[in-house]
């Protein structure tokens, strides 16, 4: 193997650059040239490839976002578009591809592997919603950023004895809400995986106030509702409370990656190169029990479901329920 390419696809996630850097350095370690594909699958189809060296990735390692840029490119589901990408890779004399992104991005890696071009996935999304792996690059930073914002909100909430509903990202998954909510000591966490009753949340918050709490925090996952609709329904049942809603939105997606995101991204980037050298393709990497793991794209994505840490959700519910 002489030359591999790496791309980032879908929503950017802090730590993606650390993974790119590890691919570049592990490639160099084995005498393999590494090319960056700019703008994800769109750049793959257009042949937007540039050779990456240590100097290109050294500084980026610690930065949020993706130095390779990203694009959502649903057209890549089409066979003729996939063939164009295949031809571009062959024309550039590239032997294999590393795709850093979410499960949609892995389908592209699978399609190329089926065409006879070896490709491997690395989970990069703040949502932590990929089956098999317990962790995706960017999740840890997103939770830390959400928590920092919630902590700030709690200062002003306490000063006015208010109830705040804070909407966090996660697409259809409640992981960011659960982790940030537990860490912030939220009075309630509302996630798409679990049904909820508005009366129960109001009751829980009232009980907290009766126990002497100065303020109340409800962490709401975006997959349940937008914050304005939720606040309206909540306020209708809790007229005595002064309620405010905040959506943390893309604040959660930027910023310097945490050490955990950088370390796991580095582990996975290097391992992806090793897997390709061993002739593996059509798989993605992940973390299970703090160790690197490999998952078959077809088997895992179609058969397994992402598992949220329900134990943390239940813990939070028990701690705030009497
Ligand atoms: O997948 C990452 C994510 O940030 C989700 O949490 C969110 O639903 C979505 O991307 C937002 O996408 P966009 O930045 O395209 O609006």
Automatic annotation (TrEMBL):
It is found in: Cytoplasm. The keyword Magnesium applies. One of its GO terms (biological process) is fructose 6-phosphate metabolic process. InterPro entries: ATP_PFK, ATP_PFK_prok-type, PFKA_ATP_prok, Phosphofructokinase_CS, Phosphofructokinase_dom, PKF_sf. The active site is at residue 127. Mg(2+) binds at residue 103. Its EC number is 2.7.1.11. Its cofactor is Mg(2+). PANTHER family: ATP-DEPENDENT 6-PHOSPHOFRUCTOKINASE (PTHR13697:SF4), PHOSPHOFRUCTOKINASE (PTHR13697). Residues 3-276 form the Phosphofructokinase domain. It holds the Pfam family PFK. It comes from Eremococcus coleocola ACS-139-V-Col8. The gene is pfkA. GO terms for cellular component: 6-phosphofructokinase complex. NCBIfam families: PFKA_ATP, PRK03202.1. Pathway: Carbohydrate degradation; glycolysis; D-glyceraldehyde 3-phosphate and glycerone phosphate from D-glucose: step 3/4. Keywords: Allosteric enzyme, ATP-binding, Cytoplasm, Glycolysis, Kinase, Magnesium, Metal-binding, Nucleotide-binding, Transferase. Allosterically activated by ADP and other diphosphonucleosides, and allosterically inhibited by phosphoenolpyruvate. The lineage of its organism: Bacteria, Bacillati, Bacillota, Bacilli, Lactobacillales. GO terms for molecular function: 6-phosphofructokinase activity; AMP binding; ATP binding; fructose-6-phosphate binding; identical protein binding; metal ion binding; monosaccharide binding. Homotetramer. This is ATP-dependent 6-phosphofructokinase. Coiled coil: none annotated.
